[in-house]
Every structure is written in C-alpha cells, then in structure tokens.
Specification:
OB fold (Dihydrolipoamide Acetyltransferase, E2P); mainly beta; about 1000 residues; 15 helices; globular; seven-stranded mixed beta sheet; Immunoglobulin-like
Length: about 1000
C-alpha cells in the first residue's frame, strides 16, 4: 500500500491540536564510539501523522538549531515509538532503529535536542546554555508530559549501555491486543481473505492506528520464494506463499509474505501458516506464530496486466502484492534506470516504469505547478524496483549472470547488457513493498533476450544527426583528474584529503580510454568539456593529457587544439574547470575570455558557495565572415546546499523539485545573459547548467512562455563578482529572459541526457541565440551514458577494463548540434563553367597533376598585420586530384601541447586549372602578429604538409609574384577562379 494514501486517511481522523502527545521518551550518549540514539513517542490514544514535525539539535548550546530531521510521512500509532540512531553505532543499537544516520544524532552531553511542530518547540531535553546533562548515560522518561524547558526530574538516569527501553514506551513492551475470543484459528481463511480488495487488509485499520489484527488466522499456500538473510530494511527473513487455486477475483492478491522461521522449508512446499495479519509500513504480511508443512505443489507465474478498473498502475501492483508474477511484453514495463547503484540502500538494483519513461516533472512543466505535481505523482505510481534477494554492491545481477560476458562480433562492446527503454519480457519474481515503492524480487535466471529493444533504443556507435557545416558539442566528463592517479600537475584548488575521479592508475587509464573513444566518435568541430581538472595547460595537465591521447587516435587533419589565451594558467578557482577543444582545420580561434560566475558569501561564517567560471571563445570560419561565440558553462549543482536551502523547512523539503542552489543558478543565468548581450554576433551557451528544461535558470536564459503570469524567479542573496555585489542581502526578483533557443527541446522534446533515480531529463544544453536557430540543421542527445549500467563505468573496473568503448564513459550524455550557416550545408565543390558547354568539367572529374608546380609564385615573407597569400604545393600528393577537392590551410600559434591562443583557417575548392598547374593559393585577409606559426595543409582531410611560417615585423617593401589571379587573367581564364577565404 502506498504510504502517502495511509497518511491522507490518518490525517482525516486526527485532531490538529495533539502536540501534547509527542515527547522525547529516551536518549543515550555512550562513552564508547558513536552509540547515540533518540527515541520519540506518541503518548496519546490515537494515531498521529507527523507531517510538520521535526527533531532538531542545538550543538553546544549555540544560537541555532543547526541539525534537523523532518518527520513528514511518519505516522505513529498510540503508544508507538520512533528510534533515531547514529549511523556508526554498534549493530545492537542500529537493529532497533527506525531512522539510521540522521545528523541529529551528532550530539554530546551538552547538546540540546527538541521536537518541533511547524518550527515551534513541543518538547525539549537539555538546555541551550551548553550545560552537560546526559554525558555517558541513558536517560529514560518517567513523566510523559512534555516540557518546553528541560526538567531533569522527568527522567531516570541509567548506564550508557542500557538500551533495553528503546522501542518500548516507558521501557516496557506495549500490551498485546485482546486475544481472539475463539482461541483456535479458523482453518478455512484464505490468503485472499487477508489481502482483501483494497490497499490494506480488512482485518486492520491503519486510519485508526490498527496495523495488526487482534486475531490469528491459519492460511494455506505454496512457497514461491524464500529469503534466507534480511535485505537491509526492505525484505526480512521469511518466505512468500500463494494460494494454490486463487479465487478468480482480480481485485484480490493470491499471495502474501510470511515473516518467520525458514528452517527446513523449500520452494514448492505446501504450508499452513498461523499468525495475525499486519500492515508493515503498507506491506500486508503474516508474522507467523506457527508453520506446518503439509505437502508440495507448484505455482504458475501470473503475467502482470492492467485492468480497466485500475485507476493507476500502483493499483495493478497492489492487487499482485505477494504473488509470483511474470513481466512479459504485455506488461509493458520499460527499463527506467539500468542495473546500477541505488544511492539509498547502497546496493545495485534496477528501476522499471509502466508504458513510458518517467520524465522529471520540471523537464516539461514549470516547477511547483499543478502539472508538475501530477507528473511527479504519475512517476511514483508507475515505478517498480527490480531487486535481487541478496545485497549486491559491485557485481553483475545474480539473475543475469551472463551480463557483459560476451563480445561475439569483436567490436569491443558487450553483447549482453540492459539499456533504458528496453521492454522486459520473461522476468519472473514476487512483489513486495517497502519505503513507498513496490519491489520485484527476481526468482528466475534470464539472459539478454529478456530485454526487448526497439531500433530507436539500440546503441549508436556515433551520434545520429544530419550534417551541416560544423558540429558543436557539450561533454560532461564526470571529473577527469590526473594529479592523483595519472602523475599529473599538482592541483592548487584541490582540498587536502579529497580524492575525486579515478581511484587508481588502472581506473584512470580506463577513464581516459573510454573518454577518447566517445570524443572520437562524437566527431565535433568545437567541444565544450566540463569537469576537467584545473591544473593548467602544461605537458602533464589533465586537458593536455586527454587531448594528446585523443589526437593519437585521429588522422592529423582531424587533430584537436586546446583553446587558451595569453597568460592563462587556470580557469576559475575550483578543482575542476570548463575547457574547449576545437579542430583548427575547420574553425579559427579569434579570441577567448574567462568569465567568472556569481558566488554566494555567507557573511556571518565566511563560507563561500562558488561556481565554475565560464570559458568564452569566439571562433571564425574558413568560408564566411560570421563569428560564433561559445560560452561553456557549468552552474552550481543540485546536491550541495546554498544559503537559501537552510532558511526554511519548505526549502529544505524542496517542494518545487529544483534541488539545492536554484537561486544561485538563477544568478549565474542572469549574469551570463547580461555579459553575452555585449558580444556581437551569434552565440551558443553550452554545458551543464544543472537545471531541467523548465526550471528557473533555463527560463531566464530562454523564455517564460510556459510559466504562469504570477510566476516569480529570484536570484540568490549575497552574490558577488569579485568585490561587486549583485543582488543584495535578500536577493532580487529577476524579470529578464534572454531569448536563447533550446533547440533540443524543440526538435526532440522527449530526449534526455541524465537520469535521476528513474526520472529522465536534461541538465546539459546547447542553447542558441535567436538568429542562429534557423541555421541549426539537427541536434541530438547521444545516449551512450545515462541509459547504460554503471557496471560499464570506469569506476567498476572489471567490466570497464574489458570494454573501453564509449558506453558509460561518464554519467551525462553528450549533446551535439549541427549548424549550416546558409540554412543548409555548404557543398565543398566549386561549380565550373567552361567555355565549351559540350565538354563540361564537372566536380569529381580527376585531373592529372604535373611532376612539379608550373609558374609558381616567388616566395615572400608575410608582415605583421598585412594580408597575404599562402602558396600550396599540390604536387606533394598523388598523381591526380579531383575537381571540387577542398584544400584547407590552418595557421595557429600551437605549442608542443597543442594549446592555442589564436588560429586562422582558409580554404580553396580546386578547379581543373589549379590542379593542372600543381599549385594554388589561399588568402589570409586580416594578417597576423609577428612570430612563428604552425601551418597544416590538407586536401580533403588528408594532410599534405606541416611546416612553420614566420611573420616578420611590418615592412614597407612588398614582394611576391603575379600569383594565380594574375595567371588567370594572363590566360583569359578568370572565370575559373572562385575561392572561399577567411
């Protein structure tokens, strides 16, 4: 049963003014280790829903309740306790915990603890003046009346090792319910009678706090699954049984879970089980008092199908609770998160969704709107967690032992895997319920055929998108560090004791190999990289190491350069940075700037909440005058708190699902939009903006078309750029939107690049300025990471070492778009109009080259700031070239580490006359600064030569020759000359 529905039912029958019923009934603070625990209790006569309540800690009698545990969703029946235990306590204490690991257990003998409702103290133990009151003792309450001022007389003082009272009000076991007036259980009761046709057993009444029946029953069933060892707090020792015949009523479950002794029991045993029926946090169970084997039998799994009468899919799952079931294609269950580590219980499992993937509510809808709330509820209803019976923290699923085991075609990628959007077919298991989710415990063994994949869902070895003139991409590397494991340059911004990224030299090699594989296949001309270690541009820096490894896998003409600027050593002041790499034979680097992003300062504590500086290069192109500015950004993440996140209970609860620091991300979006507005030309914002498509920062950068009229967006308080304050101590309402276009959301609205739990969405973007939108040919999110099992990630070295392909090279998927500047790709051919139209020379016609250039121009040295023609010897290649072949000349100040501060690129599309002469020229119109430059000449992406060009200080003399233009005119062939230059 969904716990939220219980809470609604309970809330309807509880009077609001019941604060006097909740007290701190026991606390222990031991000499040894972290044996610390707090017990609260409902001393009233009716159940109490604890929404709005919290347990809070005031360390050292300070001036604030810094640590708090919200109790929303918890319901205590009359006389029931709730025990909160330190996560590092002894197992004997942890075994009685209802909540494990909350920071309210980080107390010592002088720290006050309180229970609050809506921020108002209901009961308190200890004084806020820091006086010791419970050092190395257990305090057990004897007077159950609450106090807002600590009264030591209400507690007995016991040894710090006496924990016998925890879990029992007043230290004694609660009285058992009245015995059944008929002492012998009714042997005719069925499992279906106990389950009933609603959310709870008809023999319980959770709305009135009755979670266990007052009588015992005896039911018969066949054992379908046995749990030999408790699985965290989800599945205790016991077994599943199912009625041999059922009752034919689809509204009632034929199965139930039995908590009890499993000694001597086997699958297929027919048993009679005696005990009460209990609603254990929404899961109908029998805590057995007697188990008797009566024979053997078998159960055929029931295929899960929705019924017309099921309002939502959780109704479908509820009526199969406890049963042996099968997921077939008719069940329409899709993989919503592949087999990966679940951050809650810290074990591997898999998540399924009914009919279609669950979108994050803020991907399609504005936060906290009714539509967003409905989407969130729908995702909850459709979720099914696929579990193993034993806890697995690192290896392949026990129910899919061949996972990742074969590579039959030798392409370096596994044949046996699970991807998001696969449809499950043939998986069998039993249905349980815990922590507000239905859980499917797998009982059979399957292989890859149990996961049916559509053509659209297949792995793609490279992004599928239409070509344009250039590709621009964003790639979040998941933290690429080489200072710790790769022998790299020291990182001045990495705090002592932190070890991010790869945890061994082997992991680092695997991470590098997988990133290189992905970047190579991405095949983009400009790539923004996030989470690259911020340790400079030297030979042993992370960015140089990665690019050198990448270039080693590419033909020379496709090599990448690293964008930099004069004097630049670090990018921002965080341990990782944004970086840009580009292909110098396609685009030229005109300029680059580092743009700091707003940081938030807690003036009272000197804490600073920083964001990554944006890296903003401007590029030129070999065939047009336009420039393109690219702002590579990574906004503050959702997981670590900022100032606003500790202000109110509402913000702590994150009701709008934007995560932490949305206000600081708004500040970043607003500042970035303002700064880019001062730069001429078309622009792209790319990178990890850490906000879903309709969250506040994206609405600021794009538009507010989907937002209600009264929707307000607020920037963070106490934000600064350097010493300049931005929005004051209270923040500011941001009314501007900057009109960038989320082309991915337009072209492929259901695509995604991240998966959080089982909700898909986009945190990485390529946003274009309004004028550039019409020039976007295509865009895609290349799903090589988020939809794959984390077992293929570099941190799980067993499979990752075996498969150093691009799949799960990081956690976020790359985003890439294709641009054609005239609205369609420029064809790299030069139309030719010969004098004799009966003998046309068409693109693609081979023309023989001479042994050496004919009438080549006299060499000259270019001077500072002056345009010049660069001579290209075509005879360095084979005996023939084709009309329409493209010659590219790239000139850059690249150093030995391919770090570039400026670069230029020009091209010529060859005609028959140029090939016949064996040479051509390209013109660099703007001129260069004095110095030495690397020149790479290529024909149709094959490098002819690499040489050094020296640009001299400016001189009044001019040299050179007539060049091709003069020759064309001399021979009357000017119509043949058509060049693209930049």
């Amino acid at each position: 049963m969904k716990k939220s529905l219980i809470a609604i039912a309970v809330g309807a029958v509880i009077a609001p003014n019941v604060n006097a019923n909740i007290v701190i009934s026991e606390i222990t603070e031991a000499v040894k280790g972290n044996n610390k625990a707090i017990e609260i209790a409902n001393t009233g006569s009716t159940s109490l829903n604890l929404d709005g309540y919290s347990v809070e800690l005031d360390p050292n009698g300070g001036d604030g309740w810094e640590n708090k545990l919200l109790l929303d969703g918890v319901t205590l029946s009359a006389g029931q306790t709730y025990v909160i235990v330190n996560g590092n306590a002894d197992s004997a204490l942890k075994d009685i915990a209802d909540n494990l690991g909350s920071n309210v257990t980080f107390f010592n003998g002088n720290d006050a603890v309180s229970v609050k409702r809506d921020g108002v103290i209901v009961d308190i133990i200890g004084a806020v003046d820091g006086v010791k009151y419970n050092e190395n003792v257990t305090l057990r309450r004897t007077d159950m009346s609450p106090s807002t001022i600590y009264d030591a007389a209400k507690f007995n003082v016991l040894p710090d090792t006496d924990w016998t009272g925890f879990g029992k009000l007043d230290g004694s076991t609660p009285p058992t319910p009245d015995p059944d007036p008929t002492p012998d259980p009714d042997p005719t009761t069925t499992i279906m009678d106990l389950q009933g046709d609603s959310w709870a057993s008809p023999h319980t009444d959770p709305a009135k706090g009755i979670y266990i029946s007052s009588e015992e029953f005896t039911v018969a069933g066949i054992i379908t699954a046995i749990q030999t060892e408790a699985l965290d707090g989800d599945l205790p020792v016991g077994f599943f049984i199912q009625d041999e015949n059922g009752d034919g009523d689809v509204k009632t479950s034929d199965g139930i879970f039995v908590v009890g002794d499993i000694t001597g029991l086997n699958l297929g045993d027919k048993v009679e089980v005696t005990g009460p029926v209990e609603e254990k946090y929404g899961w109908t169970q029998i805590p057995a008092t007697k188990i008797e084997t009566t024979g053997t039998g078998s159960i055929t799994p029931t295929i899960i199908k929705t019924q017309y009468a099921d309002p939502d899919f959780d109704f479908t799952l509820e009526r199969h609770e406890g049963m042996l079931v099968e997921l077939s294609q008719a069940s329409n269950m899709q993989v919503a998160r592949s087999y990966s580590l679940d951050d809650g219980p810290k074990r591997f499992n898999m998540l399924l969704a009914h009919e279609e993937l669950n979108q994050h509510p803020n991907q399609k809808f504005v936060p906290a709107t009714d539509d967003a709330k409905k989407q969130a509820d729908c995702s909850e209803d459709k979720r099914l967690v696929v579990e193993s019976f034993a806890k697995n923290t690192s290896s392949v699923p026990s129910w899919f032992p061949t996972f990742g085991s074969t590579d039959s075609d030798g392409d370096g990628s596994a044949d046996d895997y699970i991807r998001v959007a696969d449809t499950v077919d043939g998986l069998q298991g039993v249905i349980g319920y815990s922590f507000s989710d239905y859980r499917f415990y797998v009982t059979n063994v399957v292989d890859e055929t149990a996961f049916v994949r559509s053509e659209e869902g297949e792995r793609q070895v490279a992004p599928l998108l239409e070509d344009g003139d250039i590709r621009v991409a964003s790639f979040h590397t998941q933290g690429y560090f080489n200072s710790l494991q790769g022998g790299g340059e020291t990182n001045p911004y990495l705090a002592d004791g932190l070890t991010p990224g790869a945890q061994s030299a082997a992991e680092f090699e695997t991470q590098t190999a997988k990133l290189v594989s992905a970047l190579k296949a991405l095949d983009a001309d400009i790539i923004g990289l996030m989470e690259i270690e911020n340790n400079g541009f030297g030979d042993s820096s992370a960015i140089v190491h990665l690019v050198k490894q990448l270039n080693a896998e590419l033909p020379e003409a496709d090599h990448y350069s690293i964008a930099s600027s004069e004097g630049l050593t670090d990018i921002g002041s965080l341990a990782t940075s944004n970086q840009v790499i580009f292909r110098a034979n396609t685009v030229g680097l005109d300029s680059l700037s580092v743009m700091p992003m707003p940081e938030q300062r807690a003036l009272a504590t000197d804490d600073i909440y920083r964001q990554h500086a944006a890296l903003v290069p401007t590029f030129t192109f070999k065939d047009r005058e336009e420039k393109l500015t690219v702002a590579v950004s990574q906004f503050k993440g959702k997981d670590t708190p900022c100032l606003e996140d500790s202000s109110t209970d509402e913000q702590l609860a994150d009701f709008d699902r934007q995560g932490s620091c949305e206000n600081l991300r708004v500040s970043a979006a607003d500042y970035l939009g303002q700064q880019l507005a001062d730069i001429d030309g078309e622009k792209i914002i790319l990178g990890s903006l850490n906000a879903y498509a309709n969250e506040d920062p994206i609405l600021v950068l794009t538009n507010r078309d989907n937002a209600p009229e009264d929707y307000s967006i607020t920037a963070a308080s106490n934000t600064f750029i350097g010493d300049t304050a931005l929005h004051g101590e209270k923040g500011a309402v941001i009314t501007a939107s900057y009109g960038y276009k989320n082309v991915l959301n337009i072209l492929k609205p259901k695509s995604y690049n991240v998966i959080a739990n089982d909700e898909v969405g986009s945190l990485d973007y390529v946003l274009t300025s309004a004028g550039l939108k019409s020039k976007v040919v295509d865009a895609t999110q290349w799903n090589i990471n988020a939809g794959e099992s984390s077992l293929f990630g570099f941190a799980n070295s067993e499979l990752a070492t075996q498969y150093t392909d691009s799949y799960r090279s990081a956690e976020h998927d790359p985003v890439v778009l294709s641009i054609a500047f005239d609205g369609k790709p420029i064809k790299p051919v030069d139309p030719i109009y010969p004098e004799n139209p009966d003998q046309p020379i068409i693109p693609g016609t081979p023309v023989k080259l001479p042994p050496e250039p004919i009438n080549e121009p006299r060499p000259s040295t270019p001077s500072t700031g002056q345009s010049f023609d660069y001579f290209v010897d075509l005879t360095a290649t084979s005996g023939y070239l084709k009309v329409g072949d493209e010659v590219t000349v790239s000139v850059s100040d690249a150093d030995a580490n391919v770090v570039v501060m400026s670069s230029y690129v020009a091209k010529d599309t060859l005609d028959a006359f140029e090939i016949a002469l064996g040479w051509t020229e390209v013109t660099f119109a703007n001129g260069f600064n004095a110095g030495d430059y690397q020149v790479i000449t290529a024909v149709d992406n094959t490098v002819l030569e690499t040489k050094t060009l020296t640009v001299a200080e400016s001189s009044s003399s001019s040299g050179g020759s007539a060049g091709l233009g003069g020759l064309f005119a001399m021979f009357g062939l000017g119509f043949l000359r058509r060049k693209f230059q930049k």
